């Protein structure tokens, strides 16, 4: 899965969707299945640094711009800095909770970027 942090005429977005309303975020729901291991590329197409934050599960950094992690990038995370024009690959396993109504958030952890719409929804499904 590739999540793209980007600018649009309406503001900042994830995968081209500016999540400044629930209606907008509902058009950008990311679905995963309980028990699945997922590997995502977080692609920052902007000239700004973004702080990718994932609710529900911790993840591990697989690579930063194709280079294996070292130092502070090792271990379990819930947030990772994604530099300008950079790609961070992460891996996680969804093991604890699934629901077909309630969702988790994925967003940039920088408040002005959240306010500009860098938010999406994550739904963990049983099937």
From TrEMBL:
InterPro entries: Cu-oxidase_C, Cu-oxidase_fam, Cu_oxidase_Cu_BS, Cupredoxin
Superkingdom, natural source: Bacteria
Similarity section: Belongs to the multicopper oxidase family.
Keywords associated with the record: Metal-binding
Source species: Streptomyces litchfieldiae
Plastocyanin-like domain mapped to chain residues: 24-125
Tagged with keyword Metal-binding: yes
Protein name per Swiss-Prot or TrEMBL: Multicopper oxidase domain-containing protein
SUPFAM superfamilies found in the cross-reference section: Cupredoxins
